[in-house]
Protein backbone atom coordinates (compact mmCIF):
# COMPACT_ATOMS: atom_id res chain seq x y z
CA UNK A 1 0.00 0.00 0.00
CA UNK A 2 1.23 3.52 -0.85
CA UNK A 3 1.21 6.13 1.89
CA UNK A 4 1.87 9.83 1.43
CA UNK A 5 2.87 11.95 4.45
CA UNK A 6 2.45 15.74 4.41
CA UNK A 7 4.23 17.56 7.23
CA UNK A 8 6.45 20.61 7.36
CA UNK A 9 8.31 19.51 10.54
CA UNK A 10 11.35 17.39 9.82
CA UNK A 11 11.28 15.62 13.18
CA UNK A 12 7.64 14.57 12.65
CA UNK A 13 8.48 13.21 9.21
CA UNK A 14 11.37 11.21 10.65
CA UNK A 15 9.21 9.92 13.47
CA UNK A 16 6.41 8.89 11.10
CA UNK A 17 8.89 7.25 8.73
CA UNK A 18 10.28 5.29 11.62
CA UNK A 19 6.93 4.19 13.03
CA UNK A 20 5.47 3.30 9.67
CA UNK A 21 8.54 1.31 8.69
CA UNK A 22 8.35 -0.59 11.97
CA UNK A 23 4.70 -1.31 11.24
CA UNK A 24 5.76 -2.90 7.95
CA UNK A 25 4.84 -0.15 5.45
CA UNK A 26 7.51 0.06 2.75
CA UNK A 27 6.05 2.56 0.32
CA UNK A 28 5.95 5.84 2.20
CA UNK A 29 6.62 9.18 0.53
CA UNK A 30 7.00 12.61 2.11
CA UNK A 31 6.18 16.16 1.12
CA UNK A 32 6.47 19.28 3.24
CA UNK A 33 3.68 21.62 2.09
CA UNK A 34 0.40 21.92 0.20
CA UNK A 35 1.91 22.81 -3.14
CA UNK A 36 4.24 19.80 -3.11
CA UNK A 37 1.28 17.63 -2.18
CA UNK A 38 -0.74 18.84 -5.19
CA UNK A 39 2.18 18.23 -7.54
CA UNK A 40 2.73 14.75 -6.10
CA UNK A 41 -0.93 13.84 -6.56
CA UNK A 42 -1.03 14.94 -10.18
CA UNK A 43 1.99 12.73 -10.87
CA UNK A 44 0.15 9.66 -9.62
CA UNK A 45 -2.20 7.37 -11.52
CA UNK A 46 -5.00 7.37 -8.97
CA UNK A 47 -7.26 5.11 -11.01
CA UNK A 48 -4.48 2.51 -11.03
CA UNK A 49 -4.30 2.63 -7.22
CA UNK A 50 -0.93 4.35 -6.87
CA UNK A 51 -2.05 6.18 -3.72
CA UNK A 52 -3.84 4.53 -0.80
CA UNK A 53 -3.60 6.86 2.19
CA UNK A 54 -2.62 10.46 3.03
CA UNK A 55 -1.43 11.54 6.48
CA UNK A 56 -2.07 15.27 6.45
CA UNK A 57 -0.70 17.84 8.88
CA UNK A 58 -3.20 20.59 9.72
CA UNK A 59 -0.79 23.52 10.14
CA UNK A 60 1.31 23.89 7.01
CA UNK A 61 3.36 26.89 5.86
CA UNK A 62 1.39 27.60 2.67
CA UNK A 63 -2.12 26.21 3.22
CA UNK A 64 -4.37 24.90 5.91
CA UNK A 65 -4.60 21.07 6.00
CA UNK A 66 -8.35 21.12 6.53
CA UNK A 67 -8.86 23.31 3.46
CA UNK A 68 -6.57 21.06 1.44
CA UNK A 69 -8.62 18.10 2.55
CA UNK A 70 -11.97 19.56 1.43
CA UNK A 71 -10.36 20.67 -1.81
CA UNK A 72 -9.01 17.19 -2.52
CA UNK A 73 -12.30 15.51 -1.68
CA UNK A 74 -14.02 17.48 -4.42
CA UNK A 75 -12.00 15.48 -6.96
CA UNK A 76 -13.89 12.28 -7.85
CA UNK A 77 -10.62 10.35 -8.12
CA UNK A 78 -9.69 11.41 -4.57
CA UNK A 79 -12.94 10.44 -2.91
CA UNK A 80 -11.92 6.82 -2.50
CA UNK A 81 -8.55 7.65 -0.90
CA UNK A 82 -8.67 7.99 2.89
CA UNK A 83 -7.10 11.03 4.55
CA UNK A 84 -6.01 11.04 8.20
CA UNK A 85 -5.43 14.49 9.72
CA UNK A 86 -2.40 14.77 12.02
CA UNK A 87 -2.17 17.79 14.35
CA UNK A 88 -1.14 19.24 17.62
CA UNK A 89 -4.31 21.32 17.70
CA UNK A 90 -6.53 19.59 20.19
CA UNK A 91 -9.61 21.82 20.19
CA UNK A 92 -13.11 20.59 19.27
CA UNK A 93 -13.45 23.15 16.48
CA UNK A 94 -10.43 21.80 14.54
CA UNK A 95 -11.59 18.24 15.12
CA UNK A 96 -15.08 18.98 13.82
CA UNK A 97 -13.76 20.87 10.79
CA UNK A 98 -11.39 18.04 9.98
CA UNK A 99 -14.19 15.49 9.78
CA UNK A 100 -16.46 17.90 7.93
CA UNK A 101 -13.76 18.38 5.31
CA UNK A 102 -13.93 14.67 4.47
CA UNK A 103 -11.07 13.34 6.59
CA UNK A 104 -11.58 9.77 7.61
CA UNK A 105 -9.70 9.93 10.89
CA UNK A 106 -7.64 12.12 13.20
CA UNK A 107 -4.34 11.58 15.03
CA UNK A 108 -3.20 13.93 17.79
CA UNK A 109 0.36 15.02 18.40
CA UNK A 110 2.43 13.89 20.18
CA UNK A 111 1.96 10.80 18.09
CA UNK A 112 1.48 7.51 19.87
CA UNK A 113 3.04 4.61 17.98
CA UNK A 114 0.23 2.21 18.90
CA UNK A 115 -2.50 4.68 17.94
CA UNK A 116 -0.82 5.52 14.63
CA UNK A 117 -0.46 1.84 13.77
CA UNK A 118 -4.08 1.08 14.59
CA UNK A 119 -5.55 4.05 12.73
CA UNK A 120 -3.39 3.55 9.63
CA UNK A 121 -4.24 -0.16 9.56
CA UNK A 122 -7.94 0.55 9.83
CA UNK A 123 -7.83 3.19 7.05
CA UNK A 124 -5.91 0.85 4.77
CA UNK A 125 -8.37 -1.97 5.45
CA UNK A 126 -11.15 0.27 4.24
CA UNK A 127 -9.07 1.31 1.26
CA UNK A 128 -8.54 -2.32 0.29
CA UNK A 129 -12.27 -2.97 0.40
CA UNK A 130 -12.93 0.05 -1.80
CA UNK A 131 -10.29 -1.09 -4.31
CA UNK A 132 -11.87 -4.53 -4.46
CA UNK A 133 -15.32 -3.05 -4.97
CA UNK A 134 -14.05 -0.75 -7.73
CA UNK A 135 -12.36 -3.65 -9.50
CA UNK A 136 -15.58 -5.66 -9.36
CA UNK A 137 -17.54 -2.73 -10.76
CA UNK A 138 -15.02 -2.35 -13.57
CA UNK A 139 -15.25 -6.04 -14.44
CA UNK A 140 -19.02 -5.87 -14.43
CA UNK A 141 -18.96 -2.85 -16.71
CA UNK A 142 -16.60 -4.58 -19.14
CA UNK A 143 -18.68 -7.74 -19.16
CA UNK A 144 -21.84 -5.74 -19.80
CA UNK A 145 -20.34 -3.83 -22.70
CA UNK A 146 -18.99 -7.07 -24.23
CA UNK A 147 -22.41 -8.61 -23.94
CA UNK A 148 -24.00 -5.59 -25.58
CA UNK A 149 -21.53 -5.80 -28.45
CA UNK A 150 -22.17 -9.51 -28.90
CA UNK A 151 -25.90 -8.88 -28.93
CA UNK A 152 -25.49 -6.19 -31.55
CA UNK A 153 -23.49 -8.59 -33.75
CA UNK A 154 -26.08 -11.32 -33.30
CA UNK A 155 -28.88 -8.96 -34.16
CA UNK A 156 -27.06 -7.89 -37.30
CA UNK A 157 -26.38 -11.49 -38.30
CA UNK A 158 -30.01 -12.40 -37.77
CA UNK A 159 -31.18 -9.68 -40.13
CA UNK A 160 -28.50 -9.93 -42.80
CA UNK A 161 -28.25 -12.11 -45.89
CA UNK A 162 -25.09 -14.23 -45.69
CA UNK A 163 -24.17 -14.03 -49.38
CA UNK A 164 -24.84 -10.42 -50.33
CA UNK A 165 -24.82 -8.80 -46.85
CA UNK A 166 -28.01 -7.00 -47.77
CA UNK A 167 -30.96 -7.07 -45.38
CA UNK A 168 -32.65 -10.45 -45.39
CA UNK A 169 -36.31 -11.30 -45.74
CA UNK A 170 -36.83 -11.17 -41.96
CA UNK A 171 -35.66 -7.56 -41.65
CA UNK A 172 -37.49 -6.63 -44.84
CA UNK A 173 -40.82 -7.92 -43.51
CA UNK A 174 -40.25 -6.13 -40.22
CA UNK A 175 -39.48 -2.82 -41.92
CA UNK A 176 -42.34 -3.22 -44.35
CA UNK A 177 -44.79 -3.43 -41.46
CA UNK A 178 -43.23 -0.45 -39.69
CA UNK A 179 -43.15 1.71 -42.82
CA UNK A 180 -46.70 0.70 -43.67
CA UNK A 181 -47.91 1.93 -40.30
CA UNK A 182 -45.89 5.09 -40.59
CA UNK A 183 -47.20 5.83 -44.06
CA UNK A 184 -50.78 5.53 -42.76
CA UNK A 185 -50.00 7.69 -39.75
CA UNK A 186 -48.32 10.40 -41.83
CA UNK A 187 -50.74 9.97 -44.70
CA UNK A 188 -47.73 9.60 -46.96
CA UNK A 189 -47.15 7.24 -49.83
CA UNK A 190 -44.77 4.31 -49.51
CA UNK A 191 -43.13 2.75 -52.53
CA UNK A 192 -42.31 -0.91 -53.01
CA UNK A 193 -40.13 -2.42 -55.71
CA UNK A 194 -39.48 -6.05 -56.56
CA UNK A 195 -36.96 -7.26 -59.11
CA UNK A 196 -35.83 -10.56 -60.46
CA UNK A 197 -32.85 -11.49 -62.64
CA UNK A 198 -33.80 -12.48 -66.17
CA UNK A 199 -33.01 -16.04 -67.16
CA UNK A 200 -30.76 -16.62 -64.22
CA UNK A 201 -31.17 -20.35 -64.57
CA UNK A 202 -29.40 -20.16 -67.94
CA UNK A 203 -26.70 -18.05 -66.31
CA UNK A 204 -26.01 -20.71 -63.69
CA UNK A 205 -26.14 -23.44 -66.31
CA UNK A 206 -23.56 -21.70 -68.49
CA UNK A 207 -21.17 -20.13 -65.97
CA UNK A 208 -21.68 -22.32 -62.93
CA UNK A 209 -23.24 -21.77 -59.52
CA UNK A 210 -20.20 -19.95 -58.10
CA UNK A 211 -20.31 -17.40 -60.92
CA UNK A 212 -24.04 -17.11 -60.23
CA UNK A 213 -23.28 -16.24 -56.61
CA UNK A 214 -20.69 -13.66 -57.67
CA UNK A 215 -23.25 -12.11 -59.98
CA UNK A 216 -25.73 -11.84 -57.09
CA UNK A 217 -23.08 -10.07 -54.98
CA UNK A 218 -22.31 -7.57 -57.74
CA UNK A 219 -26.00 -6.82 -58.18
CA UNK A 220 -26.46 -6.34 -54.44
CA UNK A 221 -23.61 -3.82 -54.30
CA UNK A 222 -25.04 -1.92 -57.24
CA UNK A 223 -28.52 -1.90 -55.73
CA UNK A 224 -27.17 -0.33 -52.55
CA UNK A 225 -25.65 2.45 -54.64
CA UNK A 226 -28.81 2.93 -56.69
CA UNK A 227 -30.96 3.27 -53.56
CA UNK A 228 -29.09 6.01 -51.80
CA UNK A 229 -31.89 7.89 -50.07
CA UNK A 230 -31.73 7.62 -46.26
CA UNK A 231 -34.61 5.42 -45.13
CA UNK A 232 -34.59 3.32 -48.30
CA UNK A 233 -34.13 -0.37 -47.62
CA UNK A 234 -33.05 -2.95 -50.16
CA UNK A 235 -33.16 -6.62 -49.28
CA UNK A 236 -32.48 -10.01 -50.78
CA UNK A 237 -36.02 -11.25 -50.89
CA UNK A 238 -35.38 -14.71 -52.27
CA UNK A 239 -32.81 -16.61 -54.35
CA UNK A 240 -32.34 -14.15 -57.22
CA UNK A 241 -35.07 -11.75 -56.22
CA UNK A 242 -34.56 -8.42 -54.51
CA UNK A 243 -37.04 -6.01 -52.94
CA UNK A 244 -36.85 -2.39 -51.88
CA UNK A 245 -38.92 -0.21 -49.56
CA UNK A 246 -39.07 3.48 -50.49
CA UNK A 247 -40.62 5.56 -47.68
CA UNK A 248 -42.43 8.77 -48.69
CA UNK A 249 -42.40 7.90 -52.37
CA UNK A 250 -45.37 8.03 -54.71
CA UNK A 251 -45.93 6.03 -57.86
CA UNK A 252 -44.08 8.56 -60.04
CA UNK A 253 -41.06 8.24 -57.77
CA UNK A 254 -41.32 4.47 -57.80
CA UNK A 255 -41.35 4.43 -61.58
CA UNK A 256 -38.28 6.65 -61.70
CA UNK A 257 -36.32 4.55 -59.19
CA UNK A 258 -37.38 1.29 -60.83
CA UNK A 259 -36.12 2.50 -64.19
CA UNK A 260 -32.90 3.70 -62.56
CA UNK A 261 -32.42 0.19 -61.14
CA UNK A 262 -33.14 -1.57 -64.45
CA UNK A 263 -30.72 0.71 -66.28
CA UNK A 264 -28.07 0.56 -63.57
CA UNK A 265 -27.97 -3.24 -63.54
CA UNK A 266 -27.76 -3.45 -67.31
CA UNK A 267 -24.87 -0.97 -67.21
CA UNK A 268 -22.88 -3.36 -65.04
CA UNK A 269 -22.39 -5.27 -68.30
CA UNK A 270 -22.12 -8.69 -66.72
CA UNK A 271 -21.91 -11.05 -69.68
CA UNK A 272 -24.86 -13.40 -70.12
CA UNK A 273 -24.32 -15.11 -73.47
CA UNK A 274 -27.26 -17.47 -73.14
CA UNK A 275 -29.82 -14.79 -72.33
CA UNK A 276 -32.52 -14.51 -74.99
CA UNK A 277 -33.02 -10.88 -73.88
CA UNK A 278 -29.61 -9.21 -74.06
CA UNK A 279 -25.91 -10.03 -74.14
CA UNK A 280 -25.61 -8.80 -70.53
CA UNK A 281 -27.43 -9.63 -67.28
CA UNK A 282 -30.73 -7.78 -67.02
CA UNK A 283 -33.54 -7.55 -64.49
CA UNK A 284 -37.28 -7.19 -64.64
CA UNK A 285 -38.75 -4.74 -62.18
CA UNK A 286 -42.22 -4.40 -60.66
CA UNK A 287 -43.29 -1.49 -58.48
CA UNK A 288 -46.21 -0.05 -56.61
CA UNK A 289 -47.04 2.63 -54.05
CA UNK A 290 -49.27 2.51 -51.00
CA UNK A 291 -51.66 5.31 -51.93
CA UNK A 292 -53.33 2.83 -54.23
CA UNK A 293 -54.24 0.51 -51.37
CA UNK A 294 -54.45 2.52 -48.20
CA UNK A 295 -56.77 -0.01 -46.62
CA UNK A 296 -55.68 -3.55 -45.89
CA UNK A 297 -52.33 -5.04 -45.03
CA UNK A 298 -48.80 -4.52 -46.37
CA UNK A 299 -49.09 -7.99 -47.93
CA UNK A 300 -51.41 -6.42 -50.48
CA UNK A 301 -48.60 -4.11 -51.50
CA UNK A 302 -46.27 -7.06 -51.93
CA UNK A 303 -48.84 -8.81 -54.07
CA UNK A 304 -49.22 -5.76 -56.27
CA UNK A 305 -45.49 -5.38 -56.76
CA UNK A 306 -45.18 -9.09 -57.50
CA UNK A 307 -47.95 -8.90 -60.09
CA UNK A 308 -46.21 -5.94 -61.70
CA UNK A 309 -42.98 -7.94 -61.79
CA UNK A 310 -44.80 -10.83 -63.41
CA UNK A 311 -46.19 -8.44 -66.01
CA UNK A 312 -42.67 -7.17 -66.72
CA UNK A 313 -41.52 -10.76 -67.28
CA UNK A 314 -44.43 -11.36 -69.65
CA UNK A 315 -43.70 -8.17 -71.51
CA UNK A 316 -40.30 -9.40 -72.66
CA UNK A 317 -38.18 -8.84 -69.49
CA UNK A 318 -35.50 -6.13 -68.97
CA UNK A 319 -38.34 -3.65 -68.37
CA UNK A 320 -40.31 -1.89 -65.63
CA UNK A 321 -44.02 -2.24 -64.77
CA UNK A 322 -45.88 -0.37 -62.06
P1 LIG B 1 -36.87 -15.57 -65.27
O1 LIG B 1 -36.34 -14.61 -66.25
O2 LIG B 1 -38.26 -16.01 -65.62
O3 LIG B 1 -36.80 -15.06 -63.90
O4 LIG B 1 -35.94 -16.86 -65.39
P2 LIG B 1 -35.04 -17.47 -64.29
O5 LIG B 1 -34.27 -18.53 -64.91
O6 LIG B 1 -34.25 -16.41 -63.63
O7 LIG B 1 -36.11 -17.93 -63.22
P3 LIG B 1 -36.26 -19.20 -62.38
O8 LIG B 1 -37.14 -18.91 -61.22
O9 LIG B 1 -36.72 -20.31 -63.30
O10 LIG B 1 -34.84 -19.56 -61.84
C1 LIG B 1 -34.17 -18.85 -60.87
C2 LIG B 1 -32.81 -19.40 -60.81
O11 LIG B 1 -32.00 -18.68 -59.89
C3 LIG B 1 -32.79 -20.84 -60.37
C4 LIG B 1 -31.67 -20.94 -59.39
O12 LIG B 1 -30.70 -21.85 -59.79
C5 LIG B 1 -31.06 -19.55 -59.38
N1 LIG B 1 -30.71 -19.15 -58.03
C6 LIG B 1 -31.56 -18.87 -57.01
N2 LIG B 1 -30.83 -18.57 -55.90
C7 LIG B 1 -29.52 -18.66 -56.22
C8 LIG B 1 -28.30 -18.47 -55.50
O13 LIG B 1 -28.27 -18.16 -54.32
N3 LIG B 1 -27.14 -18.63 -56.18
C9 LIG B 1 -27.14 -18.99 -57.49
N4 LIG B 1 -25.97 -19.13 -58.09
N5 LIG B 1 -28.27 -19.18 -58.18
C10 LIG B 1 -29.44 -19.02 -57.58
MG1 LIG C 1 2.82 21.62 10.68
MG1 LIG D 1 -37.11 -15.86 -59.59
MG1 LIG E 1 -35.27 -14.91 -62.56
From TrEMBL:
The keyword Phosphoprotein applies. Keywords: Coiled coil, Phosphoprotein. GO terms for biological process: cell adhesion involved in single-species biofilm formation; negative regulation of bacterial-type flagellum-dependent cell motility; phosphorelay signal transduction system. GO terms for molecular function: diguanylate cyclase activity. GO terms for cellular component: plasma membrane. Residues 2-124 form the Response regulatory domain. The keyword Phosphoprotein applies. Residues 126-160 form a coiled coil. Residues 188-322 form the GGDEF domain. InterPro entries: CheY-like_superfamily (IPR011006), Diguanylate_Cyclase (IPR050469), GGDEF_dom (IPR000160), Nucleotide_cyclase (IPR029787), Rev_trsase/Diguanyl_cyclase (IPR043128), Sig_transdc_resp-reg_receiver (IPR001789). The modification 4-aspartylphosphate is found at residue 57. Pfam families: GGDEF (PF00990), Response_reg (PF00072). PANTHER family: DIGUANYLATE CYCLASE DGCM-RELATED, REGULATORY COMPONENTS OF SENSORY TRANSDUCTION SYSTEM. May play the central regulatory role in sporulation. It may be an element of the effector pathway responsible for the activation of sporulation genes in response to nutritional stress. Spo0A may act in concert with spo0H (a sigma factor) to control the expression of some genes that are critical to the sporulation process. This is Stage 0 sporulation protein A homolog.
Amino acid sequence: MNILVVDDAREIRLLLENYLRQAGYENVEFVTNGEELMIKITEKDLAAGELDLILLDVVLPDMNGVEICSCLKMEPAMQDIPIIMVTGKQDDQTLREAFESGAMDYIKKPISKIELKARVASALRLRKEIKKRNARERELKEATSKLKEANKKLEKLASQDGLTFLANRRLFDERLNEEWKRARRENSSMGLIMLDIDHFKYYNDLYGHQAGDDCLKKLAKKLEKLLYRPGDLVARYGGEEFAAILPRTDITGVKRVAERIRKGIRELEIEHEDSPVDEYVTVSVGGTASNYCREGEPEMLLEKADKALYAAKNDGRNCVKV
